[in-house]
Specification:
197 residues, 28% strand, 39% helix
Length: 197
């Protein structure tokens, strides 16, 4: 399932991209493989390299927004491995605050579940994703998304099981936890787009 979600995100990235070099194509392919394999050091380097190669004119586009999320995820993976400390990880991503971010597609669930879109504890005004590894043994981020066009409880129920991709402006990012370190993302002006399965 996670492979499908990353593949959908990459398809979006390629569909909005202008002409890319063969080198960038290879980096994208390697980045997706690294994320799927949970090879955080490689994913971290590749996502940073690709993000740095985005032209200034496209820095607020979907490719950059997706790469920011991939970089955050890989940085959290490095934190989980103990490769970077909480202050080091936060320092590397704090500059993303105020910029667009685009999450991979997740299924909607009316029950709390890992790697799924659910409602936060305060109702459907805020959607919530617990981003974890494939085995759900490590939590990488708690993601809170406040949609511009709010969902109701009926919307949540009607979309149960469907895959949606959320995005918006990263309002804040912090690090939580001591034994199990993870990011907390607050995303404002949220957008939601249903993905074809």
């Amino acid at each position: 399932m996670k492979r499908l979600l990353f593949a959908a995100l990459i398809f979006l990235s390629f569909s909005v991209a202008r002409a890319q070099s063969a080198d960038d194509d290879q980096k994208w392919s390697s980045l997706i493989s690294s994320l799927e394999a949970e090879d955080w050091p490689t994913a971290n380097k590749l996502s940073q390299s690709l993000l740095n190669s985005i032209p200034q004119a496209d820095i607020n586009g979907n490719r950059a927004a997706a790469l920011r999320y991939m970089y955050i995820l890989s940085e959290s993976g490095l934190m989980d491995l103990g490769t970077v400390t909480k202050p080091e990880a936060l320092k590397k991503v704090i500059g993303f605050v105020g910029k667009p971010i685009l999450l991979p597609g997740h299924p909607v669930s009316v029950k709390q579940a890992f790697n799924s879109i659910t409602s936060a504890s305060n109702g459907t005004d805020t959607l919530f994703v617990t981003a974890s590894n494939r085995k759900a043994t490590s939590i990488f981020a708690f993601e809170y998304i406040v949609l511009k066009n709010k969902w109701t409880e009926a919307d949540l129920n009607a979309n149960n099981g469907k895959v949606w991709r959320l995005g918006g402006i990263l309002k804040s990012i912090s690090v939580e936890g001591n034994m199990f370190k993870r990011f907390k993302l607050l995303i404002d002006e949220g957008t939601a787009e249903e993905q074809q399965q």
